[in-house]
Write a structure and sequence with these properties.
mainly beta, six-stranded antiparallel beta sheet, CPW-WPC domain-containing protein, CPW_WPC_dom, 26 strands, disordered N terminus, Jelly Rolls, 3 domains, 400 residues
Length: 400
């Protein structure tokens, strides 16, 4: 099967990336770590797993985020390699496969949560698309199988992994984020930059026959980012594509309810005020860079219709619920442990009315925020309420 060396270096979607050549060392059948992260000036660490067919176990590697190559390996004709990495909630992973002087065909089969085969896979790429990017709003283990066709020579590949919360970066900008644009397409790094590209770098227009040879192109800038450990500004974060998550406490356990934007996510029955079951504990996770609106709406039941007819005071069925009152209490859950009883809480805000509404904000760029909500009935009769979540991206978010 060959050998491997360890370098320093979403709703799932795939997009192409470019290949580039690198120098690789192959060391028998064992895996060796080379810690170049500090010198490369890369980001935090990401985990990459490689299936060792001879030992029949997974080998784990810690790679420097966005700096490559992380892992290099060799494949014999008709053979394959299987790799995996976990993509966290609200995270995007970009995988580049770098070929070393290999021009024949190969395929990569990709699948979430289980090892792919040539017949069972979610997506597929070939040497014409030697890289892919995938993101998730839930968190998933992604597996990919690099398959070499029969009748060709051995092939050497390298893998670079980049994980971040950015869905789209603005490569139309001349310079990386935080860099100073000088005259004629040159960019100067900030004093805080510690990567290997410390002098001025040129990103002006220069046609040399290939996109990855043109410093102004997206492909050139993407590959330069992997080598130099700096990146371009983000214009859309993954949080804008992810719905908030609603969980509710039932019989001492948190349960999840799937939601669609602007629709009733879950209907809760509430007992008369003062009785058992007159309140509900909710937990809402807000995606990074997002605002979530939480609205509580009374649901028409046979009892509420009967009360409407008896009262004969409202002009529409919707007004029959207008005499019901609810309280929605809110607490930021960032520094709080889960609680099983509403009495354990000191609520920071409360909203009272027939249809209480609150907005939850998360100005962060990567981490989801957690809020706890207490929903209380103040009515003499039983009632049913629906919880509606609306989601939008924060405007003017300042994230690199």
């Amino acid at each position: 099967q060959g050998s491997a060396t360890h370098g320093a270096a979403g709703e799932m979607r795939t997009q192409s990336a470019a290949a580039w050549t690198f120098r690789v060392a192959l060391l028998y059948t064992c895996c060796v770590a080379h810690h170049r992260a500090a010198a490369q000036g890369g980001g935090d660490s990401v985990d990459l797993n490689w299936w060792d067919g001879r030992a029949e176990l997974w080998q784990g590697f810690s790679c420097t985020n966005g700096v490559g190559p992380c892992l290099s390996f060799e494949i014999s004709p008709g053979g394959h390699r299987i790799l995996s990495s976990y993509i966290h909630r609200g995270e995007r992973m970009t995988v580049h496969l770098h070929s070393f002087g290999y021009t024949s065909s190969f395929q990569v089969f990709i699948k979430a949560n289980e090892v792919p085969t040539e017949q069972n896979f979610d997506s597929k790429m070939t040497r014409n698309d030697p890289g892919f990017a995938q993101f998730t709003c839930k968190g998933v283990m992604l597996y990919w199988r690099v398959q070499l066709a029969n009748g060709h020579a051995k092939a050497k590949f390298g893998v670079t992994i980049t994980k971040d919360s950015c869905l789209h970066k603005d490569y139309t900008q001349l310079c990386p984020a935080g860099w100073l644009a000088n005259l004629n397409g040159w960019c100067q790094p900030p004093k805080t930059y510690t990567g290997p590209c410390r002098k001025q770098n040129f990103f002006g227009q220069r046609e040399l026959g290939h996109e990855y040879s043109n410093p102004a192109s997206k492909v050139y800038k993407l590959l330069w980012s992997e080598r130099c450990g700096a990146t371009w500004p983000c214009v859309e974060h993954i949080g804008a594509q992810c719905m908030p998550e609603l969980n509710y406490l039932e019989h001492g356990r948190w349960r999840h309810s799937g939601c669609k934007d602007g629709e009733v996510c879950k209907v809760f029955p509430l007992s008369p005020s003062g009785g058992t079951g007159d309140w509900r504990m909710l937990m809402i996770s807000v995606p990074a860079g997002s605002t979530v609106g939480v609205e509580v709406l009374p649901v028409m039941t046979s009892d509420s219709v009967a009360r409407f007819r008896d009262q004969n005071a409202a002009s529409s069925l919707g007004d029959s619920a207008g005499h019901e009152t609810f309280t929605l209490a809110v607490r930021d859950g960032s520094d709080a442990a889960d609680a099983a009883e509403a009495g354990d809480w000191k609520w920071t805000q409360s909203f009272r009315g027939r249809a209480p509404y609150v907005q939850l904000h998360n100005a962060g760029c990567t981490t989801w925020s957690k809020y706890y909500l207490g929903l209380y009935s103040e009515n003499a009769k039983s009632a049913q309420v629906g919880v509606v979540l609306t989601h939008k991206q924060l405007a003017n978010q300042n994230c690199a």
